[in-house]
Amino acid sequence: MSTQTLAPPPVEDHQDLRALALRHGLSVSGARPSLPEYVRQLWSRRHFITAFATARLTAQYSQARLGQVWQVMTPLLNAAVYYFIFGVLMNTKAGVPDFVPFLVTGVFIWTFTSSSITAGTRAISGNIGLVRALHFPRASLPISLALQQLQQLVFSLCALVIILFCFGVTPGWSWLLAVPALFLQSLFNTGVSLVMARLAARTPDIAQLMPFLLRTWMYVSGVMWSVEHVLANNHLPHAVLLALECNPAAVYIDLVRFALIDSFTSAQLPPHVWAVATGWALLAAVGGFIWFWKAEETYGRG
């Protein structure tokens, strides 16, 4: 009985398969869209972003007896601890008028930045089920979490205003300067959150390091002490002085202090402070967004 050898089926050229897919409207699953298209997709999902942020904010303290009161109590308790350690024991309040408003403002504004970055670090890795189950612009997650922290800041600012009143700080036209300062800080926080979201998506262990990195950053940002006094009373290298003056966290904290506290004058601000604040905001927001977009097709895989 004769046997007949069957020839293997012809292998189609890769370019032919690609042309065939394009002819029938097929595209690569999960391919990264162009940057303008990505922005359009994000805008079309703006309602999801705001709803997701609000839902996370509501659920954050839903199991606690005091509920969302902890949004205000947490930074206040931190401020009380810092006042005792730094203001009383280490006497950093010496030479700082209105030290309690100075300290509380610094704690609240710093908490806004640290909480935004912490939340952004877990934006992808903490919602991996959602990322793998649904197709949507992944930047929606860190942006919505940054928006959640902005919503939480509104509650904190209400408490901050009451504290300022209690310590004799009265409102003035300068308070309006807090609006652009917080807007620039929000852009900066969102940009850094996007960067950390991409890093932590590939290396989840980064989330374990963030508390230590953020605590170190807080200590050099003038939350509990006056940067201006340190610069005036210490002969530090020029590079260190420049780094302290241009530290973005310190810049945004000092801008809000300048807006809200009369005794915190323009002489205590670094040179060209608004230009520095705007530069950090644009660099972080634009650079962070583009850098996050470049890895869009990798999130949720592996």
Structure description:
The chain has helices at 14-23, 35-44, 46-60, 70-89, 99-121, 128-133, 140-166, 178-202, 206-219, 227-233, 238-246, 248-260, 273-293. With 302 residues, it is mostly helical. 66% of the residues lie in helices and 0% in strands.
Mean pLDDT: 83
Number of strands: 0
- Separation of termini? 52 Å
Major sheet details: none
Work out the helicity level: 55-70%
N to C succession of SSEs: HHHHHHHHHHHHH
Strand fraction equals under 5%
Low-confidence stretches: none
Shape: elongated
Radius of gyration: 25 Å
Number of helices: 13
Overall structural class, as computed from helix and strand content, comes to mainly alpha
What is the topological layout?
Blueprint: H1 14-23, H2 35-44, H3 46-60, H4 70-89, H5 99-121, H6 128-133, H7 140-166, H8 178-202, H9 206-219, H10 227-233, H11 238-246, H12 248-260, H13 273-293
Outline of the structure:
The protein is mainly α and 302 residues long. 66% of the residues lie in helices and 0% in strands.
Notable characteristics:
302 residues; elongated; single chain; mainly alpha; 13 helices
